[in-house]
Design goal:
The chain is an alpha/beta fold and 330 residues long. Helix content is 37%, strand content 14%. Keywords: ATP-binding, Nucleotide-binding.
Length: 330
């Protein structure tokens, strides 16, 4: 199957740890995976086995935004320059689309291969929030590169894009939360742990977001009962204490095949739940949501910022889909 998958949750919930385990699981099956760290705290690279220096040296998508825009706009006559292309600009006729398996200048500049027990994932990072950003920009200027990437991504069967999102409900400040086939919300069995779930559930209701809860740090029946009472049927699986994860967090992960069986089963359940959404894919709705958020951004701030009517960037005849990916402008 082909899936765009997000991991969300409050800070400290274990979101990055679980997303890294899921990426390892997919890579171990031989599936092509693009992993994206879109969190303001950039920890996915380390969770996937890189040391701190290697993770810090990963190329930041946010620092290469102009290049990404120039490549993606291709020969689209509705987009005059990279300067008039914003994070929500949808693709149209002439735009360059991206595939999971291909090689392209965006991957060359922004992605690095990470070896994972015989499997490999492409890892991309937004880049950290730096001292120079303080007081002059927000983190959405970084995640705009991820939103453009997802807007132009046509993933095929047997391919996965997994995004470790920023903590809490902050992702609702843009339309990126609608870019996924499946959103896994990692929740601890506490009132704070389920508060983000309630926010996500409320915000996502009108956008057809498929949301499932992964209970983390569950220590017994009381914790399980609490989560079931709070999130109901949205609770998919739970995870508890893991010796493998403890070793990983100390920088000494055993072979992934030695992960506890109960956690292997949980990861397989996540993959199965994501794959089940494949038949419900609606490329027309997906494209309409892109256009919806683009028009909102254009009218609220971007037209004034760019001095251009960005509503004209919308190609009314274009619908993103797998059939669109076979022909790409040079």
């Amino acid at each position: 199957m082909n899936m765009k998958i997000a991991f969300v949750g409050k800070g400290g919930s274990g979101k990055t740890t679980l997303s890294s385990l899921f990426i390892r699981h997919l890579a171990a099956t031989g599936a092509p995976v693009v992993a994206v760290d879109a969190d303001i705290n950039q920890h996915l690279g380390v969770a996937l086995g890189l040391d701190e220096d290697e993770a810090a040296a990963l190329p930041a998508m946010g620092a290469r935004l102009t290049m990404i825009k120039d490549y993606l706009r291709g020969s689209n006559p509705r987009i005059f320059s990279a300067a008039t292309m914003i994070k929500t600009t949808p693709p149209g006729d002439g735009s360059r689309l991206l595939r999971i398996r291909e090689n392209n200048p965006v991957y060359d500049a922004c992605a690095r291969g990470v070896e994972l027990d015989g499997g490999t994932a492409r890892l991309m990072v937004t880049g950290p929030f730096t001292d120079s950003d303080l007081g002059v920009s927000c983190y959405h200027s970084k995640t705009g590169a991820v939103e453009l990437f997802l807007n132009h991504l046509v993933d095929g069967r047997g391919e996965y894009a997994v995004v470790d999102m920023t903590a809490g409900s902050d992702s609702f400040a843009s339309g990126m939360f609608t870019r996924f086939d499946m959103t896994f919300l990692v929740a601890e069995p506490t009132r704070k742990g389920v508060a983000v779930y309630r926010q996500y559930k409320e915000y996502a209701r009108d956008f057809g977001i498929t949301l499932r809860v992964v209970g983390n740090k569950v220590r017994g029946q009381d914790d399980l009962d609490f989560l079931r009472a709070e999130v109901g049927d949205d609770l998919l699986v739970t995870a508890g204490y893991s010796e493998w994860v403890c070793a990983m967090e100390k920088g000494r992960p055993p072979r992934f095949s030695l992960l506890e069986d109960v956690n292997k089963q949980a990861l397989a359940a996540l993959q199965a739940a994501a794959d089940e959404t494949y038949e419900a894919r609606d490329w027309a709705r997906y494209t309409q949501q892109m256009v919806h958020f683009h028009l909102r951004n254009a009218q609220s701030w971007a037209n004034d910022r760019t001095g251009t009517d960005l509503t004209a960037q919308v190609d009314p005849d274009f619908v993103l889909g797998e059939q669109q990916a076979v022909v790409q402008p040079g």
